[in-house]
Design brief:
With 174 residues, the chain is mainly alpha-helical. The chain has 5 helices and no strands.
Amino acid sequence: MARTTTTRGAAGPRRRSVLAGGAVALTAGAATLLTGCSDGASGRGREADAERGATAERLRAAAGRDSAALLERYDATARAHDGLAARLRPLRAETARHAEAFGVTAPGSAAPSGGTSGVPGDEKAALAALADAERRAADARTAALTGAPPELARLLASVAAAGAAHAYLLGGAA
């Protein structure tokens, strides 16, 4: 039996040349990416790192202040409405853990002293106000994600999701 040969026209590239070209392109692309990440001996890299660190600290401090304000709001609501204290206790405990994650030392439990200013007299309205405060804090944390470094962004996203769940639990039936 005679061998048949296929003749390849000038129009199509050979498989070897395509694979070799792809390997060269991948190697060149990886080398460019790896060298593009280092800033060499210039101080621009250190300045950018310092700026990112300062931004992260500002975002962390703001999120900590928001968590501390939420804790005060939980405490004031529990003081104003004794019947809600048991329902609010687990949500308040989570909010205290969030504050600690952002570097704010939270009191162990609802403080017996302090005012109840800003807390509506009706329990349903008080829960709705607390849910609204949780939603605003979650929205602020979500908005801060774009400027946060990866580790802080993960923390902000997690706490924002928990805040959204708190808002649902507090005002979901309303």
